[in-house]
Every structure is written in structure tokens, then in C-alpha cells.
Amino acid sequence: MANGSVRVRFCPSPTGNPHVGLVRTALFNWAYARHTGGTFVFRIEDTDAARDSEESYEQLLDSLRWLGFTWDEGPEVGGPHAPYRQSQRMETYKEVAEKLKDAGHAYSCYCTASELEERRDAARAAGRPSGYDGKCREVTPEQKAQYEAEGREPIVRFRMPDETITFTDLVRGELTFTPENVPDYGIVRANGAPLYTLVNPVDDALMEITHVLRGEDLLSSTPRQIALYKALIELGIAKEVPSFGHLPYVMGEGNKKLSKRDPQSSLNLYRECGFLPEGLLNYLSLLGWSLSADQDIFTIEEMVAAFDVADVNPNPARFDLKKAEAINADHIRLLDVKEFTERCAPWLRAPFAPWAPEDFDEAKWEAIAPHAQTRLKVLSEITENVDFLFLPEPAEDEASWAKAMKEGSDALLRTAREKLESADWTSAESLKEAVLAAGEAHGLKLGKAQAPVRVAVTGRTVGLPLFESLEILGKEKTLARIDAALAKLAA
Ligand code: GLU
Ligand code: ZN
């Protein structure tokens, strides 16, 4: 395919929250468009009025923007094939359905649901293929009149050609479907509403899509779409059948397919807990693709430079939250400090921050930020890590207290207080020496000696580097907190 001629599309239905599988599909399409200098078309498949919502539509746009995807054609940006919301293209589908019927590629099917079910059951029992049996392919005018007199409302069915369909999947190689496995299928409901089976390939044809990259779950619709495409070509509506590439399933817990309903699959979850878009995209790109065997961390630009659908692995990919977090952590480290402090901003104010806004101290935040940057997996962890600087008292955490405050902790804290009192408070090293010396006086290694100090001052057993934290909090507050801890121990 020559540069510039690739046209891919991302065409979600606005039902519910965007999920990670959807994002992976968007990413691979977008990356392929950018890699080839092609066009990324964003289309909204909102023909299912019962399930689609305006709220989901807004969320989709917002999510794509947050992820940093730009689309060349689509909602809000327009383009030569506008509109890009299927709910605004109903006339087109109606016309195409008529043309298909007129040319004999589709027909009215008058079978009722219960008749279909009955024949399906009978076919199953007889060991025959259980798809639609083609009963209404030839309906005489008398039968038609009879059906209509009975008040039957027909659906429109596409007539599958009686031939084997073979195509070369960009990911899976050559695939073959025999006619008995691909029966005639509905394209328009009895109420006149066009179905996904029609509108999706019709729009792909009209929007001149060259490559259809989508989830493996849609593989079974591909032979039908190819047949429909061929009919559209005959009618002069489509130019050529696009190439198809089916992206591997994403597996969740217990090696089950990650479903849209799995809480783990919700994009918002990752956004809210402070994944960076670049970290999440890096991780999602690994669900079926890799830059190289020994490089897991890369920028989106590096991905775009290297991405080719031909390299996508057809095997199911496993979604591994730990790995996603580790990759995100690496991307947090890659930010420059200023960028890092800015990205943390949402978690430093309500509703996440437990401190009063006026107690937030910009200078202290800037001092602690570089230490936090090397430790976070997700940005939301920032709040707990720095709250000791802005809360009047350290956070209360009974488990931490119980773990750190042992027999003899009071004696150690008293010595530590003494040594800290005379330490150099412009040097974290000096504060460390003070606690080290206090530990030595009580026969404790640094790790054991610093635990009660950490809990007294920050409230928790784990946190940012302790001596830098003490230095930034300041002498007065540190000593006051040690005194408060001593009082609590004495009580
Ligand atoms: N609207 C369809 C979906 O979200 C698009 C499928 C496709 O990419 O063909 O499942
Ligand atoms: Zn029928």
C-alpha cells in the first residue's frame, strides 16, 4: 500500500464506558494510520437507540482526547464523508438496502421468530447446520400477499452467494468459510431499522476504508461483510474489498476473556487512579504487539515508527495489571519534574486531598516531588505519600503504628529526638546520621531505628525517603510529632 492511501477506522458504539480492549483497537488503528501516513477515521456506530447514549458518546470523545489520539475525519472535525455518526446517516442505509433488494442481493424474510426457532431446533436435532435455511429466498407473489394479509412484517435478509469465501487476514493468514457456515443474515429489522451487519460495511465502503483492524470477536462477521462488499462493488457503491486484520482476544483473570463488564476493563479506572496516557498506551500496545524482544518501554512515537499490523501476534494476550503498573511507573520516571508536578495536580486537591487547601505548601511540594517521582506506580499514590506535609497531624494508621511501635520504641524515639535536635537541618545526610546514632545507642540497625521515627512523623511504615521527608517537613514539626508519639506511647 503506497504511503498516504491507507484509510483505517475506529468505529465504537457509544454503549457504556470505554474499555481497554476498545482502546487497544483504537491504538492499533491510529498507530497504523500514523505509521503509513494514512487517514484515521473516527465513526460513531450509534444505530442502536436502545443501548446508545449521548453520555457515552461524550465519554468516547473525551477518552480519545485524553489518550492523545487525533482523528483526521470524524465527529467535530468533519471530513469528506460526513456525517460520521450513523444515527445521522439513516437515509443512506435505507437507499442501499433498497438497491440490494432491487438487484436480488437481499430479500424480504417473513419468517416469525418462533418459526425460525422451530426450524433451527429441528435442524440441530437432525445434525444439519442450524443457521437460516433460505426459506424466503423465493417467495411467490401469492405467498407474499398471504403473509401480508396475516400482518407479518418482513426483515430484510442478505442473500449469501453459494460459494466458499477465502481471505487473507493481516494477522491470521488465510481463512476459509464454507457456505453452510455462513447463512443468509438480517440487515434491516422489521421496523425498518438497519442493523450493524449492513451499516458497518456500507460505511466502510462509502468512507473508502482500506484496512479493517478490529477485535477477533468480529471475525465471524467478516465473510458476510466480504459478500456484501462484493454486492456493493457490483452496484457501484464500493470500490474494493478492504483488507481485514483481527486483533487477538484480551484475557483477564483466570484466563477468561476480559469482558466489557469486568471492572478491570474500564478505561476510567486507569484514568482515575492516575495512569499516564502514555503509560497505558505503551502497556496496551503489548497486547498483541511488541517493539522488540528486549524493550518493553517505549514512547508512542517509537511505536508509531515501528508499528505494522503484519507483526501483530494472533495468540490471545493476557492483561496483567502488575505489568501495566510497572510500565506506567517507568513512564512516570521519564517525565521531567515540572511535567510530573503538573500531572499530579488533580490528586493534590479536593476530592482526593485530605488536607485543607490553605495548608498546601507549594515550596514543600516542589521539594518533595522529585523524591515521589521515582517511587509512584500511578499518580493517585501521590496523595498518601505527601499528606504528612500538609496535614496538621500525621495520618492515623493503626496498623502502621502497631507494626513500628515495639517494646523500647519510646526509648529509641527519645534518643532520636535528642540527636535530631542538634543535627544540621539543611542536610538529609545529617538527619540520617542522627537516627543512625540513635539506633546504635539501642543496638538497632538503621532500618529498625527509622521505623518508629517514620510512623511518628508520617503516620505510615512506608513512604518516601525518610530523611529528605524530615528535612522538607522541618525541624519544628518533626520534633513536635515525635513528642506527640512519645505522649501517645506513655498513655
Ligand atoms: N461498532 C462495532 C463495535 O463496536 C464496530 C465493529 C467493527 O470494528 O467492525 O463492535
Ligand atoms: Zn424467512
Question: Would you write up a description of this structure?
Answer:
There is one protein chain. This protein is mainly alpha-helical and 491 residues long. It has 4 domains: 7-85 and 250-318, Rossmann fold (3-Layer(aba) Sandwich); 89-247, HUPs (Rossmann fold, 3-Layer(aba) Sandwich), CATH 3.40.50; 335-385; 398-490, Arc Repressor Mutant, subunit A. The chain contains 20 helices and 11 strands. The strands form 5 sheets. It has a 3-stranded antiparallel sheet. A two-stranded parallel ribbon has the order 1-2. Strands 5-6 form a two-stranded antiparallel sheet. Helix 1 links the parallel strand 1 (7-10) and strand 2 (39-42). Helix 1 packs across helix 10, helix 9 crosses helix 11 (321-334) and helix 13 (362-373) runs antiparallel to helix 19 (466-473). The mean pLDDT is 96.
Q: Helix share of residues? A: 40-55%
Uncertain segments are: none
Give the CATH level 1 class of the largest domain.
Alpha Beta
Q: Could you tell me the radius of gyration in angstroms? A: 31 Å
CATH fold-type name of the largest domain: Rossmann fold
Just name the CATH architecture of the largest domain: 3-Layer(aba) Sandwich
Q: What best-fitting shape do the alpha-carbon axes yield? A: elongated
Whole-number total of structural domains: 4
Class by helix and strand content? mainly alpha
Largest beta sheet, briefly? 3 strands, antiparallel
Mean pLDDT: 96
Number of strands: 11
Q: What is the distance, rounded to the nearest whole angstrom, between the alpha carbons of the first and last residues? A: 78 Å
